[in-house]
Amino acid sequence: MKLLxxxxxxxxxxxxxxxxxxxxxKYHQCHNDLEIEEIKICEEENLLPLNGQRxxxxxxxIAKKDWHHAMMKYARQWKEADCIVIAAPYWxxxxxxxxxxxxxxxxxxxxxxxxxxxxxxxxCQGKKLIYIATAGGDAKSNMGFDYIQRVAKELGxxxxxxxxxxxxxxxxxxxxxxxxNVKKEIDGFVKNC
Length: 193
Ligand SMILES: Cc1cc2nc3c(=O)[nH]c(=O)nc-3n(C[C@H](O)[C@H](O)[C@H](O)COP(=O)(O)O)c2cc1C
Hints:
The chain is of the alpha/beta class. Helices cover 39% and strands 20% of the residues. Strand 1, helix 1 and strand 2 form a beta-alpha-beta unit.
């Protein structure tokens, strides 16, 4: 089983990444056949937003159905993954902008989704999407996860789950304890997932 780990954590000491890595370790223990591919999107030099020039290049590749074109790299990884894990800190009520750029690179018509007579259909094979976040304040409701969950519907038939740690930057809170509680939640989650 192929798992794509989308690491959108910018900070070296990222708590979100700590939870992401914990999730992967525990998930691996429950799925021996797991092949994990990680993409550190904050470090990818070729992950750029579309502009006129890049859009034209991409349209040319789509017209030729050139799915091995360098611009299709991110979409190819996403399309082939059985399970997608996204770790993204809660920034400005959603996520770091690079994750939006990444998603822009995933939506390739006729490859990851296609327009049909009655609307669009997803062409990706994945079945699960787990979104992990940590927040300074309360992230029970997270527009970042809402967005990912909504766009995942266009790409395939993903069962989406949200795992988060809130209030890490509230003065006086015990960060270790909050993270520990989320790790316990992950322990329970992976057993049933
Ligand atoms: C650029 C930036 C934007 C942030 N925006 C929010 C926010 O809107 N709401 C919130 O509760 N915390 C916000 N925070 C705090 C982070 O969500 C919090 O510190 C989180 O745990 C950071 O994750 P990390 O440790 O993985 O980097 C923000 C932090 C940064 C650096």
